[in-house]
């Protein structure tokens, strides 16, 4: 990605990195905000992935119980947890895409 960006700017990689570092140093508030925003989005994605794993495991247990002929009273709560986690992943991914396209 860096090589491609340097080539598009007609700069060497070293020149591109130097100019990028200087640009970031000139506007530390913006740089800090961009880094924090991306870190927050990635944290949300990893948290959502963990929640989806937990909810998926619970959903598998509920389906196993249903397949054995028993009742699975926790099924609706588990399905709701899966929907919430999937929505959180979608929101975080959308924020990351929007952030990277600006």
Poorly predicted regions? none
Helix and strand content put the structural class at mainly alpha
Beta-strand proportion: under 5%
Total E-strand runs: 0
Distance linking N and C termini: 16 Å
Radius of gyration, whole Å: 22 Å
Number of helical segments?
Answer: 4
User: Kindly state the mean pLDDT as a whole number?
Assistant: 80
Provide the helix percentage.
over 70%
Largest sheet: none
Order of helices and strands: HHHH
Q: Which geometry do the CA atoms define? A: elongated
Please give a structural write-up.
The protein has 102 residues and is mainly α. The chain has helices at residues 2-8, 13-26, 28-67, 75-100.
Fold topology:
Elements: H1 2-8, H2 13-26, H3 28-67, H4 75-100
Helix pairs in contact: 1-2, 3-4
Quick summary of this structure?
The chain is an all-alpha fold and 102 residues long.
């Amino acid at each position: 990605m860096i090589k491609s960006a340097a080539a598009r700017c007609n700069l060497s990689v070293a020149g591109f990195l130097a100019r990028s570092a200087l640009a970031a140093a000139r506007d530390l508030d913006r740089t800090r905000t961009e880094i924090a925003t991306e870190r927050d989005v990635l944290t949300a994605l990893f948290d959502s992935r963990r929640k989806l794993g937990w909810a998926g495991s619970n959903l598998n247990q509920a389906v196993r119980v249903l397949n054995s002929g028993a009742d699975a009273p926790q099924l609706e709560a588990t399905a709701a947890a899966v929907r919430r986690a999937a929505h959180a992943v979608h929101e975080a991914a959308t924020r990351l895409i929007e952030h990277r396209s600006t």
